[in-house]
Design a protein that fits this description.
The complex is a heterodimer of chains A (796) and B (300).
Chain A: H1 18-21, E1 38-44, E2 50-56, H2 58-62, E3 66-71, H3 72-77, E4 82-84, E5 90-92, E6 98-99, E7 105-111, H4 114-121, E8 125-130, E9 159-166, H5 168-177, E10 180-191, E11 200-206, E12 211-216, H6 221-232, E13 239-242, H7 258-270, E14 274-277, H8 280-286, E15 290-301, E16 307-317, E17 346-354, H9 371-389, H10 393-400, E18 409-410, E19 416-417, H11 422-433, H12 435-450, E20 458-467, E21 479-480, E22 483-484, E23 487-493, E24 499-503, H13 512-524, E25 531-534, H14 552-579, E26 586-589, E27 592-595, E28 598-604, H15 605-612, E29 628-632, E30 641-651, E31 656-667, H16 674-693, E32 725-728, H17 746-762, H18 777-784
Helix pairs in contact in A: 9-17, 13-14, 14-15, 16-17
Chain B: E1 8-11, H1 15-25, E2 29-32, H2 38-43, E3 51-54, E4 64-67, E5 70-74, H3 79-84, H4 86-91, H5 93-100, H6 105-110, H7 113-119, H8 125-132, E6 136-141, E7 144-149, E8 154-156, E9 159-160, E10 167-174, E11 179-187, E12 194-204, E13 218-226, H9 236-242, H10 249-261, H11 273-295
Parallel strand pairs in B: 1-3, 2-3
Antiparallel strand pairs in B: 4-5, 5-10, 6-7, 6-10, 8-9, 11-12, 12-13
Helix pairs in contact in B: 5-8, 9-10, 10-11
The chains are: A alpha+beta (796), B alpha+beta (300).
The structure holds flavin-adenine dinucleotide.
Organism (chain B): Rugosimonospora africana
Protein name (chain B): Carbon monoxide dehydrogenase medium subunit
Domain FAD-binding PCMH-type (chain B): 2-178
């Protein structure tokens, strides 16, 4: 395998978009004010599960500044009370019969200003008849569990789906004859993406033209347009979605929320633009959460540490409506990448999705389509195995990692891993960390501690080696609501050689305006500063499915390279005409076609662009421009990987964890802009520390959300983060035009296991094998006491 | 954006003016100091005063000074000023320890010590710190000033002895030689409220303090507890067990045990009852240990 260690031409150039962001000149949805604009506010359910007896809106309607009050009953009349989710389920836009989670949308007020809209919510009188709530996902299928979705004909339980992958019989066979079997229940609790900017939209319906313009901070503007067209029956060419600058998405901004639909209805009803921006609590309580996977993992191995098979069963808590965004064929996303980075004989997983009285979603938080849950499970399980075998977790991993010569590797659950050199990445991480020295330090420290050192802490070293499956995906296998997961790109080259690239994906901070310009620059040999990247406006850009699941670089980045190559080939024909030679006799060097064997005879792309639009005589049938379009349908997913090592110090007297060091070696294939890649990794590592140590949305027995503000939902700060120590290996993807793999979620996927493994490594002297996230001081102390907390439920 | 309900706004120009405004609104107004507790509550509509009386222009309430054998702290002293004051650090390092772990620099720049005490949140760090060092609150009302020991200041969660027509104007802390103090807090994340915290101030007998490896005899001691439902934010039984006893690890451990046994923590997402009780003990011991080390001059 060839290995390219150098980044692409323009490397770590500064981000073009930062010029406006650091001046505070970005334009977010809430910065947009349209003439005559009204403001919406959502009345939400205080109960997790209750029947709606009556709704009285008279007093709210009488408020002098209120222009409309919309209820489920009104929407019902328009056939809009329910909307389809991205998983072929339905979700209430505004509740009609029952409320099914705390924070569910019940009514929508449109008023002259935000304050009046909010005041009017208090004037709406709703009578509820509370019902028992389903809170514990593990009890959702109990025969006596209240049925949440009685809106569905004949529904008598809370079951959503059963899905499995891998060869069950082969797996069971390995388990039945294995020398060692370890089993562990592992919870990946419900967390939230909590982007800095909450979700919001402005709907502007023009009665004269019949055109609906929606400003919305969506990660998938084109998918939104098509879904609005299909649901509301509006003609698609009369819908324009503008997704301006976005303050973080992490999957939270993929779906269509009831508030958006209400804003559209509000605009149609009032004839004026309607803005709806949720507040922080609404964001945390009602929009797409992430994870909530209750997993049981089993590993079969030999006594000397060869992993043979992995078996997993999962209860997946999807909340009150199945609003998860996964490719249609994969209700558990790409969870079946749980076999991780190891060479196995067999593997099998079975996932059961259930309804609970909690917010719907499950799309979110750098989700990689459930790759995060999968990576966490296998990496936790390998440590559990190391614990039982008494082996070093690094050595155990090294022994079982796939070897470079096994790629492309067909996994036991049906993937084809494109490329990898795993041992090299792990060795590099261990080298940066000084692994042997850390273990020596730990041994000495444990001795002092055992001897009764006062105030001593215990250090732990945790490893995680992850493989992701990203860049969804081949249309043949992957669609969302029937829309194949491809992305388009259009490239125009102006007569003076400057270019405009139009892409279907939208950035939420990933730096697309820079990286995509760099890709074109690399392919055409013009400066990235001379390339404008247009995105986020469906009237200005080609169709495509959007930015999530680390798919932009693998799919849209590939489209960009391909469209630039098309332009290059057009330029070749024009250059041939200019030089009066056959295009076949031309050779390319960055930025220029020249005559083979006569390098002085050549034309630059700028010269060619002008000529293409000039009076130059072009060959028969060749049009006078260099522009091109493409749609990229990826042949396979890409499989980024990485080796992470975390060092923590735990104070056993208080349960406090301090992350001392974090080493992250990522291999995301070719790095277009290494600085941006490192930025993505930094953010993901912070996320990982957050999820491992503090982030959590738990529920009390009545279904009240216990994480609905930043006082309760803790995000990590710089104070919790060490100075990251990054390393890189580069194993290009063989099927991606420029060998890139995508990195947006790598660190979020890989880091939680490293942190948790480190904490549990520290707790080894207490005989603690496992404890669930988040490892708050209380959770750590309780694990030491042998009485671990059930973290998804209220602490009683 | 979270938006509060409608309210009127008045800007006080003097303490007397503030008191007059309070009298005029007859209990329907709230004073706003740093606003870091009150404004969030208003945005969540948990508080809905009809009027806000802004006391941020009352610079006469912002001071830290020594007067005789007392340290005087104006109610409008910002957390950041308390943290930055060498005078405070010299006499009561417990206040610096506590301030370092209260919220974050943004909150500390604006939040006031008066607001902290009047908010009377059970997790407010300064309540326990001032209880440990036996501070006295000065309250002014229509009929003049009165003083109330901080140990009698709080009447319940979010409730104090300050009447609707009164202002807290000053905190007085007695200065006594031979002491050391410290504050220990466990929070889930920097800037979070305490899961539990303990503050200790200890005065060791002059002659033996630090002398020739002697632990010293505890002349007096104050122990404050945060967020664990300790009556009036302090641990009376633990204090009693230490007074007159040698300042040894064993006696600290016993004091810690008593502190844990006599508090009434409530379970919440910060932790279960057994853990909080454990922390009350553990942090009491740690705070005593450090306070004693400081009293002996063994630690800064
Ligand atoms: C993110 C965040 C984290 C925090 N973390 C901590 C923490 O870890 N530990 C901690 O102890 N605190 C913490 N706090 C609280 C912070 O210390 C207090 O909010 C602040 O100090 C209260 O003071 P203030 O001046 O802002 O009061 P305000 O919010 O202005 O007022 C609070 C209350 O006191 C009343 N009041 C204020 N001054 C007077 C006065 N002079 N006389 C009579 N009544 C008065 C007001 O009417 C109001 O009822 C945190 C706050 C935030 C926002």
């Amino acid at each position: 395998m060839t290995t390219v260690e150098t980044p692409m031409g323009y490397g770590s150039m500064r981000r073009k978009e930062d010029a406006r962001f650091i001046r505070g000149r970005g334009t977010y949805v809430d910065d947009v004010t349209l003439p005559g604009m009204l403001y919406g506010a959502v009345l939400r359910s205080p109960f997790a599960h209750a029947r709606i007896v009556s709704i009285d809106t008279k007093a709210a309607e009488a408020h002098p500044k209120v222009r409309a009050v919309i209820t489920g009953a009104i929407l019902d009349g328009l056939k809009l009370a329910w909307m389809p989710t991205l998983s072929y389920d339905t979700q209430a836009v505004l509740a009609t019969d029952k409320v099914r989670f705390q924070g569910q949308e019940v009514a929508f007020v449109v008023a002259e200003d935000r304050y009046a809209a909010r005041d009017a919510l208090e004037l709406i009188d709703v009578e509820y008849e509370p019902l028992p709530a389903v809170v514990d996902a593990r009890r959702a299928l109990d025969p006596d569990a209240p049925v949440i979705r009685d809106d569905k004909d004949g529904k008598t339980d809370n079951h959503i789906f059963d899905w499995s992958s891998g060869d069950k019989d082969a797996t069971d066979r390995v388990f039945s004859e294995a020398e060692v079997v370890v089993t562990q229940d592992v919870l990946y609790p419900r967390v939230h993406p909590a982007p800095l900017e909450t979700c919001g939209a402005i709907a502007d319906f023009d009665k004269v033209t019949g055109k609906l313009t929606i400003w919305c901070n969506t990660q998938a503007p084109h998918a939104h347009r098509t879904v609005y067209a299909m649901v509301a029956g509006l003609p698609e060419h009369k819908i324009r979605i503008i997704s301006p600058d976005i303050g973080g998405g992490f999957g939270n901004k993929v779906g269509i929320y009831p508030g958006y639909v209400c804003a559209v209805v509000g605009s149609i009803v009032t004839g004026r633009p309607v803005k709806w921006m949720e507040d922080r609590s609404e964001n945390l309580m009602s929009t797409s959460f992430a994870r909530d996977y209750h997993m049981r993992g089993e590993i079969a191995a030999t006594r000397d540490g060869k992993i043979r098979a992995v078996r997993v069963s999962v209860i997946a808590d999807h909340g009150a409506f199945n609003g998860t965004a996964q490719p249609t064929k994969f209700p558990a996303g790409f969870f079946h990448v749980f076999t991780g980075s190891y060479d196995l004989e067999a593997a099998h997983c079975a996932v059961t999705g259930v309804y609970t009285n909690k917010a719907p979603g499950g799309v979110a938080y750098a989700c990689s389509f459930r790759v995060t849950e999968a990576a966490y499970l296998i990496e936790r399980m390998v440590d559990v195995l190391a614990y039982e075998l008494g082996t070093d977790p690094a050595a155990l991993r090294m022994r079982n990692l796939l070897r470079p010569e096994q790629f492309p590797y067909p996994s036991p659950t049906g993937w084809e891993y494109d490329s990898g050199d795993y041992p090299r990445a792990l060795a590099l991480a261990m080298d940066i960390a000084g692994y042997d020295d850390l273990r020596a330090e730990q041994a000495a420290q444990r001795e002092r501690w055992a001897a009764g050192e006062v105030g001593g802490t215990l250090m732990g070293v945790g490893i995680s080696f992850f493989t992701e499956a990203v860049g969804a995906g081949p249309r043949k296998h992957m669609d969302i609501l029937g829309l194949g997961m491809a992305d388009g790109a259009e490239l125009r080259v102006h007569p003076t050689g400057k270019a405009v690239l139009r892409i279907s994906v939208q950035s939420q901070g990933q730096g697309h305006e820079t990286t995509y310009a760099q890709i074109v620059a690399e392919e055409l040999g013009i400066s990235p500063d001379d390339i404008e990247v247009v995105h986020g406006d469906t009237d200005q850009t080609p169709f495509g499915l959007g930015t999530y699941g680390s798919r932009s670089t693998p799919v849209s980045g590939a489209a960009t390279a391909v469209v630039a190559r098309k332009v290059r080939e057009r330029a070749r024909i024009v250059a041939g005409a200019m030089l009066e030679v056959s295009p076949e006799d031309l050779e390319w060097e960055k930025g220029r076609w020249f005559v083979r064997g006569d390098p002085d005879q050549g034309r630059t792309i700028t010269e060619i662009a002008l000529a293409a639009h000039s009076s130059l005589e072009l060959p028969e049938g060749v049009e006078g421009h260099l522009d091109a379009t493409t749609v990229y349908n990826p042949p396979n997913l890409t499989f980024p990987f990485g080796a992470y090592i975390c060092v923590v110090d735990v104070d056993p007297g208080t349960g406090r964890v301090k992350v001392r060091r974090f080493v992250a070696v990522d291999d995301c294939g070719v790095r277009i802009n290494p600085m941006i890649v490192e930025g993505q990794v930094h953010g993901g590592l912070a996320d990982g520390i957050g999820m491992a140590l503090m982030e959590l949305i738990a529920f009390d027995p009545d279904g009240n959300c216990l994480g609905a503000s930043f006082m309760d939902y803790l995000l990590p700060t710089s104070m919790e983060c060490p100075s990251w120590e990054l390393g890189a290996t580069v194993t290009p993807s063989p099927h991606h035009p420029i060998g890139a793999k995508g990195v947006g979620e790598s660190a979020t996927v890989g880091s939680p296991a490293a942190v948790v493994n480190a904490v549990l490594d520290a707790l080894k002297p207490f005989g603690v094998r496992h404890a669930d996230m988040p490892l708050t001081p209380a959770a750590v102390w309780r694990a030491i006491q042998g009485a671990p907390l059930r973290t998804d439920l209220a602490i009683g | 954006m979270q938006v509060p309900a409608h309210f009127e706004y008045e800007r006080a120009t003097s303490v007397d003016h503030a008191l007059a405004l309070l009298a005029r609104w007859g209990g329907e107004a709230r004073v706003v100091a740093g606003g870091h507790s009150l404004i969030p509550m208003m945005k969540l509509r948990l508080a809905r005063p009809e009027a806000l009386i802004d006391i941020n222009d009352l610079t006469e309430l912002s001071y830290l000074r020594l007067a005789g054998d007392e340290l005087l702290l104006g109610a409008m002293t910002r957390h950041a000023d308390l943290l930055a004051s060498p005078l405070v650090g010299e006499h009561y390092p417990i206040l610096h320890d506590a301030e370092r772990v209260i919220a974050d620099p943004i909150v500390r720049n604006r939040g006031t010590i008066g607001g902290s005490l009047c908010q009377a949140d059970p997790s407010e760090d300064l309540s326990a710190a001032f209880a440990a060092i036996d501070a006295v609150a000065v309250i002014r009302g229509p009929s003049g000033a009165r003083t109330v020991p901080v140990r009698e200041f709080h009447t319940g969660p979010y409730e104090t002895v300050v009447g609707p027509d009164e202002l807290l104007t000053e905190i007085r802390v007695p200065i006594r030689p031979g002491g050391g103090s410290a504050y220990e807090k466990v929070e889930r994340r920097v800037g979070d409220w305490a899961v539990a915290a303990a503050g200790a101030a200890i005065w060791l007998d002059g002659e033996s303090a630090g002398g020739a490896g002697q632990p010293g005899i505890v002349r007096d001691v104050g122990i404050g507890l945060t967020a664990v439902g300790a009556s009036h934010f302090h641990a009376a039984e633990a204090e009693a067990s230490l007074r007159g006893a040698p300042a040894t690890e064993e006696n600290f451990a016993e004091a810690g045990r008593l502190a844990g046994a006599h508090c009434e923590p409530a379970a919440d997402q910060r932790g279960p009852v057994d853990y909080k009780r454990h922390l009350a003990s553990e942090l009491t011991v740690r705070a005593l240990r450090r306070a004693a080390a400081r009293a002996r001059g063994q630690e800064a």
